[in-house]
Specification:
0% strand; mainly alpha; elongated
Length: 120
């Protein structure tokens, strides 16, 4: 499945929402009749597949890239705050906002290449 950088960022931004929807569907499926629950389970499987795609993308990335993507795109922390969070995590090895943006861009480019290669 070919995806561009904006589509990748969109998937990453929706990751937490997908996880919340999965929990909601799972809870709903437990209180339904078997026939009704089957439809919810199919929806749940589709959401789980999308979450697994994002999980596989994060495995491709270096620790720095994964941290930036998880914190900025998935958790929604703005770059100014992320610069501080990064410095707190790695101490003197803190990076500038520009460097963090470069890490994120490189991470998204890796994912785009991975998705392009997948069709070969």
């Amino acid at each position: 499945m070919k995806m561009n950088a904006e589509q990748i960022r969109g998937y990453l931004r929706k990751y937490r929402q997908l996880q919340a929807e999965m929990k909601k569907l799972d809870a709903q499926a437990r209180s339904l009749t078997p026939q009704q629950a089957e439809k919810k389970r199919e929806q749940l499987k589709q959401l789980a597949d999308r979450c697994q795609i994002v999980d596989s993308w994060l495995q491709l990335l270096s620790d720095d890239e994964a941290f930036i993507v998880e914190q900025h795109l998935i958790a929604g922390i703005d770059m100014v705050r992320l610069e501080q969070v990064y410095r707190e995590k790695w101490g003197e090895l803190g990076k500038s906002e520009r460097t963090l943006r470069r890490y994120q861009k490189r991470a998204v480019e890796k994912i785009v290449r991975f998705m392009d290669d997948e069709e070969i």
